[in-house]
């Protein structure tokens, strides 16, 4: 009697579970398929037109060469020690020292005695943007934020001046009201395609994205039900597939026809990829802050970057050495004071701060400096990378190479990637961030070097699964519409 009751109860539970499985997929799936279709199509756009950002190379190209004849103010040092960042560049025809303090504040100091830095008004913004893009100005607007300056990284530059330029690309440049520098550039093509790409894909309209917390919650609560609908659909697809001898009428592996047949087949082909995509997209905002990495504390970074007094830099001799440079930055990584010169064509050269001859930190100095950052933990290995690894890479190109990779045995298992020419810490990753690289980057971008370095292979893979996901989504929208009409 007991066994019969258990069997009946088991069948009832199984029937109830299956009914809920179908209900979740049907009704949540109607809405989620709209999102899936949008994400697949916008993701394909993003392959070819990324979100606008002012790259380091573009900044150098648009910068003025330093007027060394006008530089007669020594670098502003606090008690002889470097601030967090100190660089010399031009600001509307006047050389200036850009200073970033360790408390997070920023200040601009004239590098020419008697120079008065003009206010960042509309006329100033027009001059700077026109000079930067080598184009005439059509219009200047003053705004707190718009779609292309909505991210938090622009907060210290608000309000910004948006300058529309009369060139063939429809360029718009944004000038910071605090630094007076160009901080963002967009073109007509980028703006058009990003309304079809990044903006819908990231749920990124200005009205939502300007509130970081609200935007994060929306991403979490939109992605969550979509994951449930996708998993339920995959489960149903497996239940309704017969591969062995016990097939459906006519030897068919699926009972469906028409749009349901397309939905079933495409879902089985691209279902795993779709689930991986939506799950990794949910992880993109780090729910529960599971993947928050451990970074060196600011005090330790201050020791690494400014442990000794900076020697006096001879401006007279630097004029000859730095001819043509657009940025001259003073650095003191791992106790090695240098002047880093950057040029319009992307070249960089490091010279000793005293002798002004080519120089670089020794490997011994770098190891000693990074050991202080990592505490008293044991150094496991130091590697000189001349090719990318799984965590130091770029999509469809090569990252900066060579780099030094130092691995430590501290509890977070921290790895440091360091530029051997300057001692700059390019990246730190711990075990959580390495896990995030696989859980998000790989499952969302499929950015293995073996694929991304051979773009046709990577594009073909993304297109194949995007088509499968698109067919699944569009057929689901049509089926959902038909049921809603009934």
Q: Explain this structure to me?
A:
The protein has 486 residues and is α+β, with helices and mostly antiparallel strands. 44% of the residues lie in helices and 17% in strands. It has 14 helices and 14 strands. It has helices at 2-48, 56-62, 122-133, 188-196, 198-201, 206-209, 212-239, 258-283, 298-305, 315-321, 363-374, 431-445, 449-452, 455-485; strands spanning 85-91, 94-100, 106-110, 137-143, 160-165, 172-176, 182-186, 327-333, 336-342, 348-352, 379-385, 403-408, 415-418, 425-429. The strands form three sheets. The chain has a six-stranded antiparallel beta sheet. A four-stranded antiparallel beta sheet has the order 4-5-6-7. A hairpin with a 6-residue loop joins strand 13 (415-418) and strand 14 (425-429). Helix 8 packs antiparallel against helix 12. The two termini are 44 Å apart. The relative contact order is 0.11. Mean pLDDT is 90; it is low at 1-10.
Based on the model shown, name its key terms.
14 strands; 44% helix; 486 residues; alpha+beta; disordered N terminus; four-stranded antiparallel beta sheet; six-stranded antiparallel beta sheet
Helical content (DSSP H or I, runs of 4+): 40-55%
Structural class: alpha+beta
Q: What order do the SSEs take from the amino end to the carboxyl end, as H and E?
A: HHEEEHEEEEHHHHHHHEEEHEEEEHHH
The biggest beta sheet is recorded as: 6 strands, antiparallel
